[in-house]
Hints:
Helix content is 19%, strand content 23%. The chain is α+β, with helices and mostly antiparallel strands and 279 residues long.
Amino acid sequence: MVNxxxxxNRILFARKENGSYRFxxxxxxxxxxxxxxxxxxxxxxxxxxxxxxYQTETEFHCSDGFLIAEKEFEKLIVAVGxxxxxxxxxxxxxxxxxxxxxxxxxxxxxxxxxxxxAIGDVVRGPMLAHKGSEEGIMVAERIAKKHAQVNYELxxxxxxxxxxxxxxxxxxxxxxxxxIDYKVGKFPFAAxxxxxxxxxxxxxxxxxxxxxxxxxxxxxxxxxxxxEIVQQALISMEFGSSAEDxxxxxxxxxxxxxxxxxxxxASNNQAIHIGNKTK
Length: 279
C-alpha cells in the first residue's frame, strides 16, 4: 500500500481486495480499495500482484495491463487474513447456530442457550483485542446481574503502520448508503507545526458530522499519533459531541492533536490555519 523508509529499511505495504474494505473511509485513506504503490512520481492503483515462486520479486500491474514496477525485497511477508476457529468449540448436541464460522449471539454476546456466551473473534464485529476484552467484561457483569453493554457503533480501529491509520464511527460510504446528510472537515498534517517539527507531515485528520445537528459521526486519521487522536475523538463521540463542541475546546500548542481541533473547525468552515471552502 505505502512505500516508506523507516529506520533505514525500505518497507512496502501492499493490499489487494475487490471492493472497498468496509470499515475504512475510501476518501480518507489513500489506499482503501486496492493495492497502492507510492513512488516519487505519484500514486498508482495496481490491479494485480505477481510474486515469483521462492523469490522475493514482486510485479505490480495497472488496470490497463502494463507493468508499473518490478521490485526485489529481502523479505516478503504475506498475510491472508483470519477466520473464526469455531468448528470444534460447541457440542453438536447444542442448538446454537453458527454463520460463516461466527457463533450467533445477541447484542450482549449471549447465544440461543441462555447459559452460554461467546465473545471476541468467534462472534460478529471486527476481530480486535480491545473489542473482545470489552465484551468479556460486559458478559461477566451481566452474569453478575449488573447492567453493561458495548457500544458497537464506536469501536476504534488502528493499523500500526508508519504513518498510522486509525478511525472510529461511520465513513462516507456508510453515510451515503444510509442517506445521512453530512459535512466534512479535513486538516492536513502538512499544516501542523508539531507534525512538521517531528518531520511527520504526511496525512490528515477528517471529521464527519451531521449536516443538521453537527453531531460527530466519524473520525478518520492518517498520520502521526493517529491512534491517540482517534481515542480523543472516541471519548467525545461517546458523549454525543458536536464538531462545534470540539472547536470550542482549547488544545495545547504545538501538538498533533490540534489537527483534530482544526478538522472540527473546518467542518463548519471556520478553520484557522488552512483556507476554508468558498460558499
